[in-house]
Amino acid sequence: MTKLSELKNGEVFKIIDFDHSCGNFKYRLQDLGIHKGQMGQIINKSLFGPVEIDIEGRKIAIGRGMSKKIYVKKFECPALKW
C-alpha cells in the first residue's frame, strides 16, 4: 500500500485503510468526510503546508502528518471529473 503523502499533484487514488495506532484518527477523518473506499485526487501538495485533496467532489485540506497515516491505491488514469 502507498501512503497518501507519497502521491504527487494530479494523481488519483482510492482510500484503502488508515493507520490504527492512533485511536481517534479514524474518527477525525470521518468528521472530515473521509472514509475507506472513496476515490480522490491530489489537488495541491507543496513542500510545506497541508495537502489539498478532492474526495468525490469535495475539496479538503489535511495536514502532512495525517496524509502519512492514510493508505491508498494509486490509479493511472486521467483527472477525475465529479
UniProtKB/TrEMBL annotation:
It holds the Pfam family FeoA. InterPro entries: Fe-transptr_FeoA-like (IPR007167), FeoA-like (IPR053184), FeoA_core_dom (IPR038157), Transcriptional_repressor_C (IPR008988). GO terms for molecular function: transition metal ion binding. It comes from the Bacteria. The keyword Iron applies. Keywords: Iron. Residues 2-74 form the Ferrous iron transporter FeoA-like domain. This is Ferrous iron transport protein A.
